[in-house]
Amino acid sequence: NKRVYTFGNGKAEGRSDMKNLLGGKGANLAEMNLIGVPVPAGFTITTDTCTEYNEMGREKMVGLLRSEVKEAMKKVEATMNMEFGSKDNPLLVSVRSGARVSMPGMMDTVLNLGMNDESVLAIAKKAGNDRFAWDSYRRFVQMYGDVVLGMKPESKEDIDPFEQIMDEVKEAKGVENDTDLDVDDLKDLVVKFKAAVKKVTGHDFPVDPWEQLWGAVAAVFDSWMNPRAIYYRQINQIPAEWGTAVNVQAMVFGNMGDNSGTGVAFTRDAATGENIFNGEYLINAQGEDVVAGVRTPQQITKEGSLRWAKLAKVSEEDRATKFPSLEEAMPLAYAELFDVQEKLENYFKDMQDLEFTIQDGKLWMLQTRNGKRTAAAMVKIAMDMLREGMIDEKTAVLRQEPNKLDELLHPVFDMDAMVKANVLATGLPASPGAATGQLVFHADEAGKFPVTILARIETSPEDLEGMDIARGILTARGGMTSHAAVVARGMGKCCVSGAGECKIDAKARTLAAGGMTFKEGDWISLNGSTGDIYEGKIATKDPELSGDFGEIMELADKFRKIDVRTNAETERDAKVAREFGAQGIGLCRTEHMFFEGERLVRMREMILSDDEAGRRIALDKLLPIQRQDFKDVLNTMIGFPVTIRLLDPPLHEFVPHEKENQESMAKEMGVSVDVIKKKVEDLHEFNPMLGHRGCRLGNTYPEITEMQARAILEAALELKAEGKPTFPEIMIPLVGTVKELKMQEKIVRDIADQVFKEKGDKVDYMVGTMIEIPRAALTADEIAEVAQFFSFGTNDLTQMTFGYSRDDAGKFLPVYLKQGILKNDPFQVLDQEGVGQLVHTGIERGRKTNPILKVGICGEHGGEPSSVEFCVKAGMNYVSCSPFRVPIARLAAAQASL
Ligand code: ADP
Ligand code: MG
Ligand code: MG
């Protein structure tokens, strides 16, 4: 059982495809050696050892590793021509964490390990540089104290004891930068640091390099289980079993003087994707200094440096003398770095994020990995590399992270304008995109200025129209699932919710935040992707749906094997979805067409009627309205199928609950308020979601189904007369037994025959059902004898399979997720293990009796990448999702077929 893999001097026992065992860092350090990139020698202890360590503890782990590590260290010593633990020619090493996937900043690294009061002298002598040796020593005591001896404070608020000493020493000396400290100061720091260690831990600082090494190895393994790392794994769904590797590597020194330095670089621009080598470095510095921001980092290329100086308003003279680029300061090392970055990108065939150190003019590479990037860069880099012939079409598609595309579908702030932007407060990033506009405080005033931001304490259903008109929505209260957040996401509109720091006074029409007060008409800006709220007007850019984005989507379509439809009930949503490439509507919810104005009155009239005759009178008035709605929706999808679901929600959702509305309804219908009140009370249900809804409505009040079927078919006939072909699919909701469906189907077909006879013409249509009750999935063979299509309504199916009320799950789901009882919110990510079985069963049994059964999904899951993949593999014909998820589903579906 090999636990240690060495690398160095152009050789390596590992390879880049061994990331599971060696971690990403270790695997790529090995590979860089193999392709002739200069890397300091070292070795990697496997991720499996981390798992062993967690089980057996430090003592036993050291026992298992000792001889292998000693052997590996000998190889490093031979390559570097130094000796670990020697008094005269000491080798110093770094001990670095490195998991399978990069977890930036989550785990710990110790540099300069092997330092003690003797080796520091030898190192000073050898380098002919006292300052460098003592600088390295004080860094080591600090890092070791923080990481291995646990002296780093838990919370950011508490001060690191070492930082505090450092600040005191600098203050006493009256200097700002640590480079201004001289050898005596550094020696003083080492003494003070060690005293702090003794005081806090009760032990002397360990002097034996081997003791230091085992301590650091154990600390890196331990860091896998620190709260930060656990949290990071949770939100990124990284299993705890993976473990981290430990890389022990000969130190190279960027702090040896002005001909040394350290930096990070990207082979392309991680923000825009442009093919421009870029990065930052510091002269006379070590490792983390660049990221930690101890000094202002300098640009690597001259071009980048000039651009930086312009933005930072630094004069050319200052730039060239105080902040020169690496290209200017160390042209030879720069030239080598440029060649190496080119070589690495060509080799790994993806944008690389590099770490390097220059020791006395000589370049060393310390890390390479595929760089993190924005959505725009993700698309551009893949398309550029495809055109450059570096990758093929499939790879370009597979490189896209579907969920990330969301960033590209909404307006964004202009980058140059952002530099000056002042953040007033931060709320929750409820619905992505950028918006700038003039403040209004009431929904019915949303049209008061040409572009507005609607600021409310919270929103309610009456605000819908105003929300639609406003460019962005800001609420002081409410979470990610508040009304404002949910509605805004549905509209694809920028929203920041729950911004508690904003004091909104709707009466006075003022908003106070960040120490300023804004009145109606004042400009503010929102970033719905980050939750930031900005002062003033900031230029925004509309999403660019053509260009590289369009091309990548076309490529995806080339590989995609199933259709992507949209859930839409308004003409506007359907149009947006068409622009995003939807191939039809998978769910058109008819109840949404009854919630306002005249329609709601007629709907109430129908529900509150005493008998069928009364209901028919109201339904006759609803018919032309419905017909026009259907015509509008169908008209946006000419040539594509449109699934229209018959009335689904419990009727009490429509009736007036407030006194005022009950009174006006009483007047409208010519009855007393008490009659209305009584009716409303009668409609009360204990468990409305399991009550009188779905096809149970159509089967108790067949006239509702009759009206809806008629409206759909008449609309289709009218469009046909205009030369526009449509494909309505009439969907019966909440079916649990085949007889329920059969009754509804008969009503629809009888009406169809009547309508066709009346009009003397026909259209093709289908009758099918939602599969959203577990019993329907289990008896799908019977149901498919009647249904021409199935649409899995996985919202209800999840609700009923888990027995979790969707509307009440907020009370326990967060706890379940935190405790790991559930891995994901099953309403967001389809539960393949449980609900997935019902889907498989439903499809299999359904197709047994009806081999040409068309199958799709129309729950929220239809736009969630892992669920889309499941649907493709389960053999569905299409997925359907909200308009703004359509591109994401197109990509996810393509990837599932590759
Ligand atoms: P992280 O994963 O947080 O980036 P790393 O292990 O990569 O941690 O190391 C932190 C910093 O220390 C990086 O800047 C890296 O380049 C530097 N570093 C690590 N090992 C060495 C080494 N052997 N010589 C010089 N610098 C090193
Ligand atoms: Mg690193
Ligand atoms: Mg349902």
From TrEMBL:
One of the record's GO molecular function terms: pyruvate, phosphate dikinase activity
Cofactor entry: Mg(2+)
InterPro entries listed in its UniProt record: ATP_grasp_subdomain_1, PEP-util_enz_mobile_dom, PEP_util_AS, PEP_util_C, PEP_util_CS, Phosphohistidine_dom_sf, PPDK_AMP/ATP-bd, Pyruvate_phosphate_dikinase
Superkingdom of source: Bacteria
EC number: 2.7.9.1
Class in the EC hierarchy, top level: transferase
PROSITE patterns documented for this protein: PEP_ENZYMES_2, PEP_ENZYMES_PHOS_SITE
UniProt keyword terms in alphabetical order: ATP-binding, Kinase, Magnesium, Metal-binding, Nucleotide-binding, Pyruvate, Transferase
Keyword ATP-binding appears in the UniProt entry: yes
Name listed for the protein in its UniProt record: Pyruvate, phosphate dikinase
